[in-house]
Amino acid sequence: MFRCRRMTPRYFSLRKTALSSHRTPNHCCGIRRDAASSNATADSIYLAPIRSFSRYLPRSSARVVPDVIPFIIKKQPLKFARSASWFSPRRFAGSQKNGDGSSSSSSESSSNGNQDDNGDGSNKDDPEVVIEDKAGTSPDPTQGVLTQILVPDVFPEVPLIPVHRNPVFPRFVKMLEISDKSLMDLLRVKCRLTQPYAGAFLKKDDNDEAEVVTKLDDVYQVGAFVQITEMHDMGHKMRMVILGHRRIQIMGIVEDPAHVEKSVKEKKDAVSTEVKSPEEVQDPAQNIVEQDSESERIDLENMVKQGEKPILMVRVENVLHQPFKITPEVKALSAEMIKTIKEIISLNPLYKEFLAQLIEGGKKVVDNPVHLSDFGAALTSAESNFLQEVLEETNIPRRLRLTLELLKKELAVCLLQQQLGKEVEEKVNKHQKKFLLQEQLKIIKRELGLEKDDKDAVGEKFRERIKDLVVPKHAMEVIEEELGKLSFLDTHSSEFNVTRNYLDWLTSVPWGMYSEENMDIKRAREVLDEDHYGLQDIKDRILEFIAVSQLNGSVQGKILCFTGPPGVGKTSIAKSIARALNRQYFRFSVGGMTDVAEIKGHRRTYIGAMPGKIIQCLKKTKTENPLILIDEVDKMGRGIQGDPASALLELLDPEQNSGFLDHYLDVPVDLSKVLFICTANVTDTIPGPLKDRMEIIHVSGYVEDEKKSIAKTYLIPQARNKTGIKVEQVELQDDALETLIKSYCRESGVRNLQKHIEKIFRKAALKIVQDKDDLIKIGPDMLKDYVGNPVFNSDRMYDETPPGVVMGLAWTSMGGSTLYIETSLSESLGADKDGAGSMSVTGQLGDVMKESTQIAYTFAKGFLANLDADQDFFRKAKIHLHVPEGATPKDGPSAGCTIISALLSLAMNKPVRQNIAMTGEVSLTGKILPVGGIKEKIIAARRAKVNCIILPEGNKKDFADLPDFVKEGLEVHFVPHYNDVYKFAFES
């Protein structure tokens, strides 16, 4: 007699129907009732035709199946499933009550006695199958109590389940999670067909996370025949526990799941071929069987249709180990393995679960080398290829040796882990011990009065900081108030940190501390001349400041503003002034600044508040009379955080900065002794009130001779030091330096000249290292190899100016330049039939310059009429006036006399004097008004090799202030009216 493997809920329904009708169906055997109870007891035997159960037997079973299969219900009153949404064949254990109320054990064995894969005749450890529904609820054991599953010895076709990183060994479980729909559908079908078996094969690539393989090369050929012992189906994914039984090897691929279609066909035939009588047709139990069979057939057919991609099924055969004998080598290897396993478990508590399995297996695992080798390999965390090698090995002594090697490596890792753990633990204990002793020492010192707590220590630190300072009364009152407030606050409160930071800034201000100022004018002049060439106006103003301070006997602050083109030394001279005066130097730029808090600080109510730049300067310099350079004041912005230019009004006002109030400190600070120096390129963008508070000193650009002197005195020695070149290695000739200044570096400043000189010396250094040259002489012809082609050409557009063209002079923030005025007839003379004449202007002129052209046009017509009453040129001519370099915006009134001269030259068809340039604003009556930028314009005229210059009479004083080498060789005429300009331009 065979023990049945499954009973499904539909047969419980059939059983319930038969019992309720008090008769036995024709296709079922009778139910033997217990004499002591009317209930069907666990000793009842229920028989069913083999046709109804054939689908639950594996196709690979080679046993001779009898016509009927007995189901032994183990001493359990029959309970019937109320739902078929889940399927749970489960082995029932425990004691149950009999019908007479007595308790009996549930243990029972079959007369046949199923055998495991090792043939030891024991099957009490065989697993059970649990399939949970999608809601995740476990089935109730009372809803169907069935016998355990007998694992077949041969199962030729199994689904292929790829596993990652670690293979599955026999008698070991592994938890898997599957989300591939095709594989999930196949496993559901297999479990429904009572074939919860599969083949678990290790993937060769550990990084490949695919759950289905498309070719056998992706997995190793030897794996494990596994049984699905638990399954939790959540719809979109499936969690299962698999148990390895034996080794198997892949023999081939099953192209399509034909077993599903065949099972459907078998079940259909089993229902249709039953011999039905009229009594059987009316039997309700038979109707239930037919309905269930039909519904299951439809479900299976749907599964086949939905599987668009065939699941990879494989044909397998069992892998048997080679016969072996228990030799001394096998015994020694086994003993060494057991010893190593015990050492590993003693070192690593994570392996105690494996120890429990070892104890549960008892002598069976210890004495069985087959089991022991698998157990030892599964215990390690070796790489997958080494574990697979153990799994594939069929020679037991060699398998034991491989496993022992893995165990020894695992033991070495555990020893290293233990050593590292001890070192970390010792380090932690050392820190804990140190911390504990320090805390105890603090308590002891506090008890003895040798140390104060944190609040007292902080307060003492602040008092010690201001002990030697001359703190004003109003500031001292605030400090004392905050110190008293600090003593009542808890050290862990946020208010404590805010108060402590506020006191830290209050006591960091150098109250009453001043650096000793240098009053030696001679020493100051030496320092200024040592660092900078020229800049005589600035040097004289600083010497005057020292003289006044020396006479007064006290140091006062001052607000100066240096304006001029970039690169003329405005910022660097400020640092030299600080060194000459022996003052601390602090610089901050306000270019692009839009936040007032950068200057006056934040309110203390804000998180992360801090004082402004001025208070930070005092803290850093530790003196109340530093030199503060405020750079780029002409480039300040304005935003939603306020107007920084307005914030500077209080700071730069000598009458107000003696009580400067920072938003954070909220205590007046005396800045009257501070020397403020501001720098700007132009003064047009500086607000009027701010400009009124500063003494503006204009710094002009450098002429060629000045640039040459600066290059020889400062720039070339600096370039030598930076590149490490000695004087005798590189020689930059004078004519090369002149060419460099004229053709490459025409800017007013020397910053661009410095870059070119450094570039020349860098390339020379490379040549010295590569070519091993002793001396490199750089002449004008070699500059192209070092700095490229020349950037600038001659400023002169005309070697000889034709009628209607006059050279003017202009200046910008980058320096001075020549500016030609060109006039021409746009149409032939007399084309204007109205007789009024006209003039159009081009050259991207600004509004002021356009107005100047209209004034000049009006004055020229009157002036020409006075010269010759019969001259009607302007009444007939359509004139076009153009200013070259049309991409450059131009504006200003200083080209008035130049425009008049160009119009008169065109009208009289007579060129002006060659090598003459002029500048000056003209009024409607012809008066020549003074203009700015005289030095830059004179420099531009010298660069264009102009020897005659006409200037307004009001600029005579500006010309007188120029150095002699700038004025040398120039014919300059100062004119009050245009009549004088006409005389020098046309009649001379």
TrEMBL record:
Domain Lon proteolytic: 800-988
One term under GO cellular component: mitochondrial matrix
Compositionally biased residues, Basic and acidic residues: 122-135
Enzyme superclass (EC): hydrolase
Gene Ontology biological process: cellular response to oxidative stress; chaperone-mediated protein complex assembly; mitochondrion organization; oxidation-dependent protein catabolic process; protein quality control for misfolded or incompletely synthesized proteins
Keyword 4Fe-4S part of the UniProt annotation: no
SUPFAM superfamilies: P-loop containing nucleoside triphosphate hydrolases, PUA domain-like, Ribosomal protein S5 domain 2-like
Family affiliation: Belongs to the peptidase S16 family.
Protein name per the record: Lon protease homolog, mitochondrial
